[in-house]
Amino acid sequence: MPFSLVHAPVGVIDIGSNSVRLVVYDALKRHMRPIFNEKMLCGLGSEIGQTGRLPEKGKQVALACFARYVRIARALPVTALHAIATAALRDAEDGPAFLKQLEEETGVTVQLISGDEEARLAALGVQATLFAPDGLAGDLGGGSLELTAMKHGAIGERVSLPLGVLRLWQQAGNDVSKLRRHIGEALEELPWLARDRYPEFYAIGGSFRTLARIHMRRANYPLKLLHQYHIPRRELKKFADDMLRLNLHALASLKGMPAERAHMFIPSLVALQTVIEHADIDEVVVCAGGIREGLLFDQLPSAVQAQDPVQAFVEDILPEYRTSSEYPEALCQWLGPLRERAPEVPLRLARAFCYLSDAAIGMHPETRAQWAFDLVLYSSLNGITHRQRVWLALAMYHRYRAKLKLDHPSLGLLSEAELASARLLGCGAALAYLLSGGAVGLLSEFEMALSEDRITLKPEGEVRITDAEAREKLIEGLGESLRALSSRAR
Question: Which end of the chain, N or C, is surrounded by fewer C-beta atoms within 10 Å?
Fold first, then answer.
């Protein structure tokens, strides 16, 4: 039986120096979910340094790949298809002719992005996927490196440098001293880079993601999500020192190292470390957003752009699970006394939890807690750190199970206070639903009174009509959480 799509998909074909990629998103909105994502390595920028032209084999592969992606996009069908090209086609003398060939054979016009525009769009991709970014965005591609200053989300000075990983490798191979000197000389021409303060570096692009994946494996990190993975500067230096001792064969043998990127690993690592040291940056933050997300984000109204990404996520994916549209806000207000006992939990995170809290109601009772935990932990959620993601997942777990019967390595990212506060709000939301059934009018009839380690509900006579066993389990969980938080406070 035919069915209609609820959303209106949009697609972006990105022709880069190393690969051609198609990403189709479910719709043009604040929280854009990829529903198709594929790339083909074409190496269009692999010979520009020597010949100034695109490689013939690379053009053949890219043309066939582009035509296939256009067919896929049209067959889905997308409501809009954007095609963009970056450094390789900007710099190759036969780039314009190849762009014309692509258009003639597929009927799709490819927009050639300038270096300045590429830097701006990459920064918008950071805005689209992080909350109020404050630092330096860096997009390392095959042909260029874009750097953009960001202050509390606003885009500042920016530049596109001919320091792509393919070019760096062609110019210096794995000669670390030559790489550092070449990159450092280019950065010295940017007075604003050393003048301002950048707490974080937002690392964009496949080369940086590969680097982060290798670091994550070596650190035995418990959460296998690259987006918003943090690497402190000190750890990056130790990691770089270890990696620079390895030869190409040893690098290619590392778990998580794509075979096609092994030879580019050292140039990308040296580029990252040189920028970090030059700009005196504290921490690297991996960002999954880039020019594709930035291109679409740029088309949204300013009011939509300003939305909190985590709130956009919960409002986008969960309307069918809500008991009512007013209940999440009423729940957030009702949980106020509990939130006061957990001041380390940002209001925006607690609010997102209240919107998500009923998501597992339709699942089998035995699976609800685990399903709710996994929903948050592995979703396409943007705008929160890994620790906040784990906290939110655990709060969702406790929304459906008062006692912790879960052994997941990611819980090791949380402090004792964070473990307790997740249980506190999770049990609190479960109690609210037990009392009200998700009805705002009924919830408002009940009040909580808290002591240091005890919760009392008023009016007690009404409370006694609810499921006594479930109620006592929740109140016990709340009391244990309050005691844990109180002892930590002392």
Answer: N
